[in-house]
Design goal:
The complex is a heterodimer.
Chain A: H1 4-20, H2 29-51, H3 57-81, H4 85-118
Helix pairs in contact in A: 2-3, 2-4, 3-4
Chain B: H1 6-40, H2 48-85, H3 89-104, E1 109-118, H4 131-135, H5 141-153, E2 158-161, E3 164-165, E4 172-175, E5 178-181, E6 184-186, E7 190-195, H6 198-206, E8 224-234
Antiparallel strand pairs in B: 1-7, 1-8, 2-3, 2-7, 4-5, 5-6
Classes of the chains: A mainly alpha, B alpha+beta.
Chain lengths: ~120, ~260
């Protein structure tokens, strides 16, 4: 169960912010949600790459930062020009989260199947 | 796990953990903002179209209020001038004006009375309940109307719901997910403040088959609370008093009593 560490990290971060009561301006609410979704995409992608032994630290770290910022900026741009780019980002990122999660699940199942065959 | 990949494996895990931590913080911040928007500011949704309409309404109202302020200021200076010129008659006029404003609900009122707190049921309806029954678990505009009506009928002299004074042309209506009184949207709990004979009002509300009886889904639902209070304050009506269509008709003959 190697995923315990990331999950614990996420929980600690969550509760740290949740109970510290940091003030967040309501104006950026939707961008913040989108940034969180982009973060979810990057983390699930990182786990997937890790499991597939294709993990590259620099791609992962830069991807997290850039995707998070870019998603927010794109949504902001969409708001400015009156096109709902927010939805485009949600669909793209959401799709990737699902894809990553399903690949992680497959890797997992293959691993379990292999170890059964060996024993 | 003894493999050449062992070191690399743990290294990706740490990277992912670090960013998971950041992700957790982002999620918490996002959740928190949404909660702030929904619960603290009383806006039921963050959906843009709904907000845009509410904003347009609000802007229109602000505009009309601003116009009214300008008008009122001008009038005030006129009155002040008249007061300086007028003699003893102005005192009489002032008293009469005061009493008229009080009756119209344009002045704050205080006195003894009751407060009624209405809120949606703490229990949720069973999932298989029929829609007619589900309605009973929430407070509706007609519930508030019933209470206000009953309170006036039993002698209330000044009533406000969530600080919105009930005046002659107040409307209480349901608009989407919220209830608007004097065109001001509000959400539960609804606090009805009524100045008047506390005994009469309380017994009128609680009489068998009366308005409170409608909320007996069961003992635990806790939807209606009635409290008697010695010192209640009912705020003045703060909305627009602009009349666009109606104009007063001067009575024929002698006006003065």
């Amino acid at each position: 169960m190697i995923l315990i560490l990331p999950i614990a990290g996420a929980l600690i971060g969550f509760f740290a912010v949740y109970f510290l009561d940091l003030p967040v301006p309501p104006g950026i609410a939707s961008y913040l949600s989108l940034a969180a979704l982009a973060g979810l995409d990057s983390v699930s992608g990182g786990i997937r790459a890790g499991i597939e032994d294709k993990f590259e630290a620099d791609i992962f770290l830069s991807g997290f930062m850039v995707n998070t910022l870019l998603a927010g900026l794109l949504a902001y741009l969409g708001d400015q020009i009156g096109v709902d780019l927010f939805l485009a980002a949600v669909v793209a990122l959401g799709g990737r989260v699902f894809l990553n999660l399903s690949l992680i699940r497959r890797q997992w199942l293959t691993k379990i199947a292999l170890s059964r065959r060996e024993s | 796990m003894i493999s050449p990949l062992g070191l690399k494996k743990s290294s990706w895990l740490w990277h992912v953990t670090l960013l998971s931590f950041v992700l957790g913080m982002l999620l918490a911040a996002a959740l928190k903002t949404q909660q702030t928007i929904r619960f603290k500011s009383g806006i039921p949704t963050t959906r843009l179209p709904v907000l845009a309409r509410a904003w347009a309404d609000e802007k229109e109202r602000t505009e009309s209020l601003r116009k009214e302020i300008t008008d009122l200021r001008a009038k005030l200076s006129q009155y002040e001038k008249a007061l300086g010129e007028g003699g003893q008659q102005s005192g009489l006029l002032r008293d009469e004006l005061r009493s008229a404003k009080f009756q119209a609900g344009l002045l704050e009122a205080k006195g003894e009375g009751v407060i009624v707190i209405l809120r949606d049921s703490r229990k949720r309806p069973p999932p298989d309940a029929d829609p007619q029954l589900v309605d009973d678990y929430n407070i509706h505009d007609y519930d508030i109307r019933d209470f206000v009506n009953e309170l006036f009928a039993s002698g209330a002299e000044a009533i406000a719901v969530n600080d919105q004074r009930i005046i002659a042309n107040t409307s209480i209506r349901c608009v989407g997910p919220s209830i608007q009184i004097n065109s001001t949207p509000m959400a539960p709990p609804f606090v009805i403040t009524a100045i008047g004979p506390a005994d009469d009002m309380e017994s009128a509300l609680k009489m068998p088959g009366g308005v409170v009886d409608q909320f007996r889904i069961d003992e635990l639902s806790d939807m209606v609370k009635i409290q008697r209070k010695k010192d209640l304050v009912v705020p003045a009506y703060s909305g627009s008093t602009r009349y666009r269509f109606a104009t007063p008709v001067e009575p024929k003959g002698e006006i003065k009593p």
